[in-house]
Amino acid sequence: DTEIIERHHNQKIDAPSGTALMIAERLAEALPYQSELVYDRHNVREKRAYNEIGMHTLRGGTIVGVHEVIFAGRDEVIEIKHEAQSREVFAAGAVKAATFLAECTEPGLYNMEHLVAKYVDHA
Question: pLDDT at residue 7 above 90?
Fold first, then answer.
């Protein structure tokens, strides 16, 4: 059973966040069956379907951003979590992306995979 929980500050307008939706899309691509994204189960009065990806959104205080993915199986749970402590990490990433684009000599459509390939050591 797969669940996504995302938390952000109380001024954030979109819910769920774009990052949470991207995570859900990638999970759906990786699953061997057609999944269904289910938002907010409080009105659902039935057992959880095997193909659900649950999406939960929390807004409060000054939370910069937290994204969790929970894989709950029989008698075990695996959790993956990213928590941003400040917006500085996003600003640094934006500067790195701008630098990458400024150094590109070929015209084209670039994405995060190109950026990561340049800056991450695959050795």
Answer: yes
Question: pLDDT value at position 122?
Answer: 55
Q: What is the set of active-site residues?
A: 8, 12
**Among 72, 101, 84, 91, CA closest to 2:** 72
Asked if residue 104 lies in contact with residue 41, where contact means CB atoms within 8 angstroms, the answer is: no
24/62 Cα distance (integer angstroms): 24
| 120/111 Cα distance (integer angstroms) | 14
Strands (E) in the chain, as ranges, are 2-8, 36-39, 52-59, 65-73, 76-84
Task: Say which residues have a Cβ less than 8 Å from residue 84's Cβ, sequence separation at least 6.
Answer: 64, 65, 66, 90
Maximum alpha-carbon separation in the chain:
56
- Tens digits of per-residue pLDDT, 41-93? 888 789 999 999 999 999 999 999 999 999 999 999 999 999 999 888 888 88
Q: Phi and psi of 52, rounded to 5°?
A: -75, 145
